[in-house]
Specification:
α3 runs parallel beside α14 and α16 (289-312) runs antiparallel to α17 (317-345). This protein starts with a helix and ends in a 10-residue tail after the last helix. It is mainly α. The chain is built from 22 helices and no strands.
Amino acid sequence: MINLIRPYLSPRVYPLLLLGLASGLPLALTGGTLQAWATVEDVPLTEIGFLTLVGAAYTFKFLWAPFIDRYVPPFMGRRRGWMALSQILLGLTICGMGLLDPSRSLFWLAALATLVAFLSATQDIAFDAYSADVLRHEERAAGAAIRTLGYRIGMVVSGGLAIWLAAVWMGWSGMYIFMGLLMFSAAVLTWLAPEPEAAGANVAPRTLYDAFTVPFQEFFSRKGAISILALIVLYKLGDAFAGALSTTFLIRGAGFSPEVVGSVNKILAVVATIVGALIGGGIMGKLGLYRSLMFFGLLQALSNLMYMMIALHPQNLPLMALGVGFENLCGGLGTAAFVALLMALCHVQFTASQFALLSALSAVGRVFVAGPLTPPIVEAYGWPAFFVFTFFIALPGLLVLWLMRAGIKALEKDPSPAPETGA
């Protein structure tokens, strides 16, 4: 038991819990929570579906990630400075969302949510680079798990807890303002976090041209680069489809009230996320990266079928609670292994650009495929058939993973496979 806990006590690991929470907090506020608000205000399903396009910034964040690599803010260092600046601006814009109403100002609310997504993506760029730079190789499994735990708790706080707060206490406007104030406090946590000690972590590219070109030249010069990109896009695709309108499904499709959905998410999702992340870190340390990705990916696919059962048995609270808990457990496991993979693929001098490229590609399915396609599929075939579809859409990613098993296993032996770039 002590050996399981010890890696999480490292001064480079445990700060990632709260920083991960700050990173995950804005996502649901422009996703599931915004869906719930629009659903309660009787916004049409098609318009709710296209609200998922608000998250396009997460897909395109690699376009401005080189600026994060090249320029260093005059405070808190190369990574922490950008994190703190993003967190302060997020606090302002999230508070601004609370001043609008989706039934009367949906366009302007979506525009402000898009700005939140842009700032959140910028925070993610800096935080992802910071996580990869600050952790030693032997701490990556624990670090990936603990930051995944923090990220998913942040999603639960701004998801299930936020919906519950809006429904029974603060109202939607008050809840968004409260979440904005939480983002302001994250800047203090960033100030207290340690600086990375890895060689090259604080060395910026010489020119902006180098920052834009060398990271991508280096990555695409690697053997199997296209296969890596295919794996990144497909690994979480089934999960993206299942989660695209999950809040709307539980309220409108399964017949639960927003208060019930928020309460179950607030309690069970947090517990399942904590258990999943801690177990995931321990399992990854023993199974290795490839076997963890395969095992957790299978569990992710199976968790989608729990939502099929909820759709077949609406208003069954124990079944809904079991499904939500299992999905959060498996999602946390899969995300932890996925983050560890991204860390292993990045060159230390260009972590922001390369991590942003890879993580942005993983959002392609969620933003441009799952969001727009989910409403017509549901309307044509119904919720049960849709969730069966999400199970099968998860399988191609696992096939690509199996085909790439030799390369993934090589990353476990060589934590820094990227060659020197000369930049």
